[in-house]
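Entry 14. Ran structure prediction on the chain below.
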Amino acid sequence: MTAAARALPEGRYGKPSRRPGRRTVLVLAVCGVLAGGVVAWLGYRNLGSAPIEAERVGFASEAGNRMKLTFDVTRSTPERPAVCVVRVRDAHGQESGRREVYVPPGAASTRMAAVITSGGEPVTADVFGCSYQVPSYLSTTQPPTG
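Output, structure tokens:
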């Protein structure tokens, strides 16, 4: 091939693009760093250590399709009340009973116990999750209504 054959036809492909300016590169770099910071913050917030955690210690069957669950609650701000949702499961692994347990302010680590009634014969019990968002009907600090 000759040099003339390798040359692009004039006007067919437009003008060759020029490199972006320093300002454009700087703006894109700052945006990239900010986006990375937001992603890191969201990851830490969602995947970091939870402010309240619960761990099952044990469970035992009781009469009448009921099960007693014992669990430890560990929280970062023990002066705040919390609520934990506990549940039982049947032989097929389906949830067959659930209960909310009020955790009063106190020590950073607290042992709790709850009896959960099941719709069928329960075979295991566990803690579904805990939160500092205590419903008003569980709070003992609210004055009684009605």
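The chain is about 20% helix and 40% strand. Will compare against last week's run tomorrow.
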